[in-house]
Design brief:
The protein is of the alpha/beta class. It is 45% helix and 15% strand. The relative contact order is 0.15. The model has no long low-confidence stretch (mean pLDDT 98).
């Protein structure tokens, strides 16, 4: 049976590194993205050049209609999903909680929490032995922020990742008997473009002296952990977390 993986937010950063590594490990890859078609195409072309199967599909994970269409397209173009990486996530300009408006909070929670729930729902419907599926694995991309809280920067983002941690535990137990494992990685300080969205592209330079390993991480260091959690080597691991934060 073909291994089919959906990676949300795979046009850039951690998602893109995960897409390349998944292709290398024999998955047919769906590279989901929001707007940056050029970046998504670059990932897909790179994978195809190595002789592996990949497609780019635009979908806003916060939109139920988009998510349903995304999984239906994957069914048609690649086959039934066997692995999902809930990676798409956003943060916004650094600020204190007293300055956050409701629209910002809605955007963060809609993408980071509701998006992950909707994608997990569509994956479970297809993977669960209860629904005639043959099982699968889900990895949620949480953040070290769920433990640290991100004071003065983005407590909203950190709280959204706290919800992802709880979802990981609950969903893992809910579907454990149905052939599906659900785990999470909690990266921190990874060298990607997300820090620019917070208004500080060089954030890692500023904080690295407070990281025990005294450096930021690379996207591939997160991708490696994600692919291990998805693999048969992690066959008895569910509801678990791997922190990839240089010891922070
Ligand atoms: P990034 O470089 O900013 O890339 C974000 C990706 O998500 C892009 O592919 C983007 O698509 C996509 N995306 C954003 N909103 C989306 C939506 N509504 N629907 C579908 N796709 C969407 O981010 P990153 O640093 O790789 O982060 C990836 C994940 O790791 C996030 O969940 C983040 O919270 C988590 N994380 C990152 C760090 C870090 O230090 N970098 C630390 C802890 C956790 P477009 O290219 O189309 O915009």
């Amino acid at each position: 049976m073909e291994k089919v993986i959906v990676i949300t937010g795979a046009s850039r950063g951690i998602g893109a590194a995960t897409a390349y590594l998944a292709a290398d490990k024999g998955y047919a890859v769906c590279v989901n993205y929001l707007r940056n078609q050029e970046a998504a195409k670059k990932v897909v072309d790179g994978i195809k050049k190595l002789g592996n199967k990949a497609i780019a599909l635009s979908a806003d994970v916060a939109s139920e209609t988009d998510v349903i269409a995304l999984f239906n397209s994957v069914d048609r173009q690649l086959g039934t999903v066997t692995a999902l990486v809930n990676n798409a996530g956003i943060l916004e300009q650094q600020m204190r909680v007293e300055n956050m408006d409701a629209n910002r909070l809605q955007r963060i929670l809609a993408t980071n929490i509701i998006g992950s729930f909707l994608c997990a729902r569509e994956a479970v419907k297809r993977m669960s032995t209860k629904h005639g599926g043959t099982g699968g694995a889900i990895v949620n991309v949480s953040s070290g922020a769920s433990r640290l809280g991100s004071p003065g920067e983005y407590v909203d983002y950190a709280a959204s990742k706290g919800a992802i941690d709880t979802m990981t535990i609950g969903l893992a137990k809910e579907v454990a008997e149905e052939g599906i494992r659900v785990n999470a990685v909690r990266p921190g300080f990874i060298d990607t473009e997300i820090h620019a969205s917070g208004g500080e592209p060089d954030r890692i330079e500023r904080v690295k002296e407070f990281i025990p390993m005294k450096r930021g991480g690379q996207a591939i260091e997160v991708a490696t952990a994600i692919l291990w959690l998805l693999s048969a080597e992690a066959s008895y691991t569910t509801g678990s977390f791997i922190d990839i934060t240089g010891g922070k």
